[in-house]
Amino acid sequence: MSASGRADEAPLVLAHDLGTTGDKATLVTPTGEVVASVTVAYPVDFGADGKAEQHPDDWWNAFCRANRLLLAKHGVAPERVAAVSFSGQMMGAVLTDAAGRPTRPAIIWADTRAESQCARLIERVGMAEVYRITGHRANPTYSLAKLMWVRDNDPEAFAGSRRFSTAKDVILQRLTGMHVTDHSDASGTNAYDQLRAAWSDELLSASGLPRRLFPEIVASTTDLGAVRGAAAAEAGLAATTRVIAGGGDGPMGALGAGIVDRASGAYAYLGSSSWVSFADIAPLHDPQMRSMTYNHVIPGQFVPTATMQAGGASLDWIASVLRPGADDRFEQALAAAETSEASADGLYFLPHLLGERSPYWNPHARAVFAGLTMAHDQGNLVRAVIEGVAYNLRTGLVAFAESGHRFAAIAAIGGAAKSPLVARILADAWQLRVRPNSMGDHATSLGAAAIAAMGVGLLDRADVRSFVGKPSGDAVEPVLDATINAERYDTFMDAYRRMEGWFDR
């Protein structure tokens, strides 16, 4: 509260979650209470050959509109916002000129066009060495290969570019004029030396990209100063609001789910892309390179992760196909699946709508319904999609277990995690307890809010557990027989193995 004791004058922090489909702005108190949130959508340009682009101006316009809608709707004066911070989609490539203006559309995480550039990196450095340096395989989904693709395929735009940024960092530039990123976002570029906590000289040399493009790397809680006057007016914020660096959505989701160290356990995020992850004091280098490791937004911690390209996006796709344009398409899809079967009736779905990262790292992978018959209806299709996502995420948990990291329960966050049906399917597929998180789809926003509060001294790191999400309700226990589930999982994995040669044709 303020010195006068009035709650309506107490400071608030503002979190922006810059996702794939929109910007979610959330007002949070210094004790972690969500006051209100609003989401402003923007488009994605999916095109041929793996194209996935957005325009950075759409992100900025959504950011400004979300601020104005949120503050006006809830009668909050801009001066009450002590700090703003960000959770941002990772692995993209945004190029801007010296004034910070985009020189071309942003290439986002889902884009897979940079295959030849990635192959060049592997030839020059070696896959095992890239994994050792960065904690990640070399892959066309990462920023470094995408920057090389722009240089090779859009030379005019590249020649006019002076800065490379990720999604949230473009907004940071416009708010403060500073060209920075944080360690968590940097660790998702394929250009970051994880143990040195700096840009990798070896990978930058192999890419042939100039060092001047790459931003300064700072801690996620770094206070970058107050919002610049002109930007404050455009964004609907007070010029007194402090801008805190923030982080990538994966590590930020871990914080929002309460995963701050190894003792916190593991969590699953069910957003457009989906992943399973946990926190530890060192990167996890899987001998088969199925998983990757990001830097946490908490200093000194890392988040080993197994990420699939189209998790929630697969559910979004099937719901939109079955109920195009319907506002309640997700609810209708889930209702149809509630009393249906899929793998129990011989129907499987390979959820590779956008190629695949973990565990296959194959940009040529494609989505497949296997075992489809005339007897199957829309409920079976939806159920198969959910089970396909669950089994694909299980491959990450298997990789963790084989490296000695086993968990009795998984905290679930993200929009789809709110569904009791989805939680039951996950619990059965993983043979683990699934604990819905109290923040649900607010988790990444709450993580960014915690970082904002720490950045301006409203929250001490020692108290962060009391700020972020906690388990909500009873854990969902698996009920499917483990032997039957193992057989279905093996069938799911066999379907990919049989299709892999066809994918690569």
Which properties best describe this structure?
six-stranded mixed sheet; seven-stranded mixed sheet; disordered N terminus; 505 residues; alpha/beta
- Helix % is 25-40%
Structural class: alpha/beta
Query: Beta fraction of the residues?
Result: 15-25%
End-to-end gap: 63 Å
**Apparent shape:** globular
Task: Describe the overall structure.
Helices cover 37% and strands 19% of the residues. The chain has 505 residues and is of the alpha/beta class. α2 (115-125) crosses α4 and α10 (249-256) crosses α15. It is globular. The chain starts with 11 loop residues before the first strand and ends with a helix.
Quick structural overview:
The protein is an alpha/beta fold and 505 residues long. 37% of the residues lie in helices and 19% in strands.
Q: Which helices and strands appear, and what pairs or packs with what?
A:
Elements: E1 12-18, E2 22-28, E3 34-41, E4 45-46, E5 52-54, H1 56-73, E6 81-88, E7 94-96, E8 106-107, H2 115-125, H3 127-134, H4 143-153, H5 155-159, E9 163-165, H6 167-176, E10 180-182, H7 183-186, E11 192-193, E12 198-199, H8 201-207, E13 216-218, E14 223-226, H9 229-235, E15 242-244, E16 247-248, H10 249-256, E17 266-270, E18 274-278, E19 292-295, E20 302-308, H11 312-322, H12 329-338, E21 348-350, E22 368-370, H13 378-402, E23 409-413, H14 420-430, E24 433-436, H15 443-455, H16 464-467, H17 482-503
